[in-house]
Design a protein that fits this description.
about 375 residues; alpha/beta; Aspartate Aminotransferase, domain 1; Aspartate Aminotransferase, domain 2; three-stranded antiparallel beta sheet; about 15% strand; globular
Length: about 375
């Protein structure tokens, strides 16, 4: 199989990640639940992973990295922990349902006002429109670092500057970028960054979390057992315990730690991201001239900061049919449909047809890309 669905999850993991998970399954206990060797070893793995994530994201305090099963739960934690009844929040049409649905529920249940900035025909965020919405009195701007549909990257440092000028917080969904596009919380002025381990970081599913800048008060969302302060009636206030109720995925975090080490050994985010983008650009250059093929997103001349996503359609054919044909005829795995980003598809005019998304990884080869180009060509010609 040629796997080009890495924006959903990386199928190929570095061997060290697999080895770390297997070893952890046979040795780790429950972090923070006892003083046995297994429990203490688990705590060391968790804290080591926390330090690695903080270093990667430019988070000033490692204890302000809280783990969650995925970026969806991390975003729910951040949004529900920051937004209060009656608040006003600004977001964008680029967002995944992991942002939109928590905000929509707050709008329905707590009287929160949610406003969305639009985008242009290439799916690029309308920064002027965003600036008009970001006015004093808003609570937060919640924005994706990159669209999971088009691969376009948002200038989140500029968004954060707008938010802070209005006295608001900047919450970033970095699900599509961590591991392939640099994220520097301090340098970019980001208040909260939510991430997942199973995409660009090449780690296990069931890993992710949020990194919180010092001074930002995220109220506990999930509450429950923490292994400490058992007689407290409410969730402990200390970091990161306040945001980590229940047993952590120690086995997965062992794999994520190994993935973070692997990323650093390959040269870091810049090197890995450049490789992914080079393969994506090769794919784009191969399909963009095929008659009947429409490619979405900003692929303009000159250097472009974007993820390894190539989003396309073939004529008026339903995206699911094209994706099925790629798999059945050539063994190429892609992702069709709406990609949990309804407003983005409405903006692009693809709500009915959907889009076929092909997404590269560190392990994607030129031969695989070239095979995908030829497959798309044959489908378009037929």
């Amino acid at each position: 199989m040629i796997y080009l669905d890495n924006a959903a999850t990386t199928l190929r993991k570095p061997p060290c990640v697999v080895d770390a998970v297997v070893a952890a399954m046979g040795s780790l206990g429950n972090a923070g639940r006892g003083a046995s060797a297994g429990s203490l070893d688990a705590a060391r793995v968790v804290e080591g992973c926390r330090e690695r994530v903080a270093a990667l994201l430019g988070c000033a305090r490692a204890d302000h990295v809280a783990f969650a099963p995925n970026s969806t739960e991390a975003l729910n934690c951040a949004i529900n922990g920051l937004v209060r009844p009656g608040d006003r929040v600004v977001t964008t049409v680029l967002e995944h349902n992991s942002v939109l649905r928590p905000l929509n529920r707050l709008a329905a249940e707590r009287g929160v006002t949610v406003e969305c900035a639009g985008c242009d025909a290439l799916g690029r965020l309308d920064m002027a429109g965003l600036e008009r919405l970001v006015t004093p009195g808003i609570r937060a701007v919640v924005v994706t670092h990159a669209s999971n549909v088009t691969g376009n990257v948002v200038d989140v440092a500029c968004v954060a500057e707008l938010a802070h000028a209005a006295g608001a917080l900047c919450v970033v969904d970095a699900s599509q970028t961590v591991g392939c596009v640099p994220v520097d919380m301090g340098g970019m002025g980001l208040d909260v960054v939510c991430f997942t381990g199973h995409k660009g970081l090449m780690g296990p599913q069931g890993t992710g979390g949020l990194a919180v800048a010092e001074g930002v008060d995220v109220r506990p969302w999930n509450v429950g057992g923490t292994g400490v302060h058992s007689f407290d009636a409410l969730q402990p206030e200390g970091w990161p315990t306040r945001l980590e109720a229940g047993t952590l995925n120690g086995h997965g975090l062992a794999g994520l730690s190994a993935a973070l080490d692997y990323l650093r050994e390959q040269g870091g985010t810049a090197v890995v991201g450049a490789c992914e983008l080079a393969m994506a650009r090769r794919l784009y250059e191969g399909v963009r001239g095929i008659a009947g093929v429409t490619v979405y997103g900003d692929w303009g001349a000159g250097p472009r900061v974007r993820t390894g996503v190539v989003a396309l359609n073939v004529g008026g054919v339903d995206s699911a049919e094209v994706s099925d044909a790629l798999m059945a005829g050539w063994g190429i795995a892609t992702r069709p449909g709406a990609h949990c980003a309804p407003l983005m598809h409405e903006a692009l005019g693809t709500a009915e047809q959907g889009i076929v998304r092909l997404s590269t990884s560190w392990f994607t080869t030129e031969d695989e890309v070239d095979a995908a180009v030829e497959a798309v060509r044959e489908i378009a010609e037929s």
